[in-house]
Amino acid sequence: MKPSTFTRFAAVLGPLLLLFATGCSDKVSSGKDWQVANAADNFQFQVTALENYSKRLEYVWTNTGTAASVNQACSITGGTATLTINDGAGIRVYARSLKENGTFTTATGTSGSWLIRVELSKTDGTLNFRAQKSP
Hints:
Blueprint: H1 5-23, E1 29-39, E2 42-63, E3 68-72, E4 75-86, E5 92-97, E6 102-105, E7 112-133
């Protein structure tokens, strides 16, 4: 029995397609030097060398005040990274792209257990931010 033209074509083309597909896959790196310091009234986050990384991270942070100062010093070269903060009552008091560097103040909220959320989508670069109780 002779193999059909399709069978011969698939036998040659199949491995080539597999080689091409694996050779073109995007590199994904969860980064280096992950550092999270979560103390009452002072939260710090840093990671370097992210490559095409997607993840949602959440941290519960104690803020004894009603507002926070947020310092963002990131170097994002691809994708998106968003920081949102909810106060002790669960109300969003802060939302900003981590591509925006500077020092910002959250809206006034309720003291207690605040939620810090970092959403990364195909992010490349270095992230560094700090949230501190406002005086």
